[in-house]
């Protein structure tokens, strides 16, 4: 089978009987070209199957239009929704997303990023607190622009997007109090990302503020099965909590299923639960989980808007407030 050869702008120009620059102006928004020339060029392009090489055009301006999305746990519902939103906004801004999976924090991550840099990506968006700081060091050294989401790292010239996690945790504690709960627990993973730890610290701080000791349990990855184990640990304690704030919704779903099916507890009559992220599953009739909604679309919009503006040496912090979504896993919700 012969190799497919891409049609060049010169071939279009020859077929249309115009200059090479006329073809370029035809496919450049706002450029001056007569109606007749435009018609001839478009007819020739359609007949030959010509498409503009935006990558080559961008490299002539020292811009590739490529943006690396550096992601861990990309198969989780929240992360998938964030990837979907960011990639959509990038496409609307005529940019292309290049996905780098960083589930393994070893040399393979650096090699994958170096490969992306070799394609002259303009920027990187780090969607997680998990990748090592050395990864963002590499981005900066390559001259990329940076957007850091839910990390505690500060970078000159970068946009740093964080949630007000501690404030949300305090709100969850007060919601439990108003529901008449007396024994409070926080269910976390062992991952230890800045956002997860901020929720834990905020919930414990609220307990101290109101003179209440908060039980903390941590286990495994931030996934459904870890919620099962956390429920087993918390609900077999001598003093069983009647209010559990989970670091994310996947933990909460695993915890709720275990509480109801293994321990025969009724939610919310025997146990109140709050999650975080507002993934699709939380609205299912099986859960009806009260949770905090991550402003996914706004995060994506702010990130892409920042990358579309002129580069600056000064960075910017953007802090967003997650909304509490009331459902049926808290009494009075």
UniProtKB/TrEMBL annotation:
Alphabetized SMART domains for the sequence: HTH_LACI
Annotated Pfam families: LacI, Peripla_BP_3
Keyword tags: DNA-binding, Repressor, Transcription, Transcription regulation
Domain HTH lacI-type residues, every copy:
7-61
CDD domains given in the database record = HTH_LacI, PBP1_LacI-like
Query: Has keyword Transcription regulation?
Result: yes
For this UniProt entry, the molecular function terms from Gene Ontology, in alphabetical order, are:
DNA binding
Per the record, the domain of life is: Bacteria
Name of protein: DNA-binding LacI/PurR family transcriptional regulator
From what organism does this protein derive?
Neorhizobium huautlense
The opening ranks of the lineage are: Bacteria, Pseudomonadati, Pseudomonadota, Alphaproteobacteria, Hyphomicrobiales
């Amino acid at each position: 089978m012969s190799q497919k050869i891409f049609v060049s702008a010169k071939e279009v120009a020859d077929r249309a009987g115009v200059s090479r620059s006329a073809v370029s102006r035809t496919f450049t928004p706002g450029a001056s070209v007569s109606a007749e020339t435009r018609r001839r060029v478009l007819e020739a392009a359609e007949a030959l199957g010509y498409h503009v090489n935006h990558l080559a055009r961008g490299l002539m301006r020292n811009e590739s239009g490529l943006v690396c999305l550096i992601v861990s746990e990309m198969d989780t519902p929240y992360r998938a929704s964030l990837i979907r939103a960011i990639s959509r906004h990038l496409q609307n801004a005529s940019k292309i997303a290049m996905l780098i999976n960083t589930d393994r924090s070893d040399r393979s991550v650096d090699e994958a990023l170096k490969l992306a840099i070799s394609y002259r990506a303009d920027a990187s968006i780090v969607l997680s607190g998990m990748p090592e700081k050395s990864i963002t060091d590499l981005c900066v050294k390559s001259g990329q622009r940076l957007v850091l989401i839910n990390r505690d790292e500060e970078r000159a010239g970068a946009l740093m997007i964080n949630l007000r996690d501690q404030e949300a945790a305090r709100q969850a504690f007060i919601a439990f109090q108003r529901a008449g709960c007396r024994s409070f627990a926080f269910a976390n993973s062992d991952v230890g990302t800045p956002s997860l730890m901020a929720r834990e610290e905020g919930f414990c701080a609220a307990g101290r503020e109101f003179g209440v000791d908060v039980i903390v349990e941590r286990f495994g990855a931030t996934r459904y099965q870890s919620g099962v184990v956390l429920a087993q640990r918390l609900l077999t304690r001598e003093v069983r909590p009647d209010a559990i704030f989970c670091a994310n919704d996947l933990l909460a779903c695993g915890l709720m299923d275990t509480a109801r099916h293994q321990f025969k507890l009724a939610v919310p009559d025997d146990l109140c639960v709050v999650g975080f992220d507002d993934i699709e599953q939380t609205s299912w009739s099986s859960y009806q989980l009260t949770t905090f909604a991550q402003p996914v679309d706004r995060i994506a919009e702010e990130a892409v808007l920042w990358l579309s503006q002129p580069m600056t040496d000064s960075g910017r912090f953007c802090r967003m407030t997650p909304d509490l979504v009331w459902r049926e896993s808290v009494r009075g919700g």
